[in-house]
Amino acid sequence: MTERFDPYELLALAAPGAVLAILGATASPAFQAYLKGGEGMSLGGLGFFLLVSIVAGHLVQALANLAEAVYWGAWGGMPTVRLLSENGLLSAPQRSRLAALLEQDGILARPPISAKDWGGAVGEMRARISTSGQSARLDAFLRTYGLMRGVAVAFLIATVAAPFSDNIWIWWHVSAISATAAIISGYRAHRFAVHFARELAVRYLSASHAGKRPK
Q: How many Cβ atoms sit within 10 Å of the Cβ of residue 98?
């Protein structure tokens, strides 16, 4: 059985790519003319725009993977990696219960825990929650994080690329707008990463408390 098509995955590629495609149309009269194909955007131009957006989106998300490693490295790791540390995501009793539960379920040993072991534990926690049919909110948080991460990087690229334009008006306005959008999008990505980590832990603890521990 094949998995159901998720339009959000396509959106996570098309949206960041569209940012760069629009920038390209703004900077290139030839590209803009091709998309319009006359008085307005033609059907072929729209299809080509979507294709360019998706391809560009893949490239942007590849760069976003690199930016993600740098950004979260400055925070000491992604929120999911820091669930058992004193970082404010979980209360002390929750951290203690989660550590004991993960050890009891054979997912994780007692501290000290390596980053590799903890990364594997997070993956197994998510897989068990998904198997039990309780992952709707987790999936929503993760999809939105991926979308906003890509959009943030796309606007960051636009901010850097704008100064190379020959039009000074475009340089100032696109740079200012793109930089602001990159900051807002990055903030949203950060928030949803934190929401995902907290929801992952709370969902696992709640399932155990209700006697429906994910298997």
A: 21
Q: Which tens digit of pLDDT belongs to each residue from 101-112?
A: 888 888 876 655
- Rounded CA-CA distance 204/58 in Å is 32
The answer to whether the beta carbons of residues 16 and 154 sit under 8 Å apart is: yes
Instruction: Quote the radius of gyration of the chain (alpha carbons, Å).
Output: 21
* Separation between Cα atoms, residue 164 and residue 4, nearest integer Å: 43
Q: pLDDT tens, 64-86?
A: 999 999 999 898 888 988 887 77
Tell me the CA distances in angstroms from 73 to 61, 64, 77, 120, 204, one per residue in order: 18, 14, 5, 18, 26
Q: Cβ distance 201 to 90 under 8 Å?
A: yes
Query: For residue 211, is pLDDT > 60?
Result: no
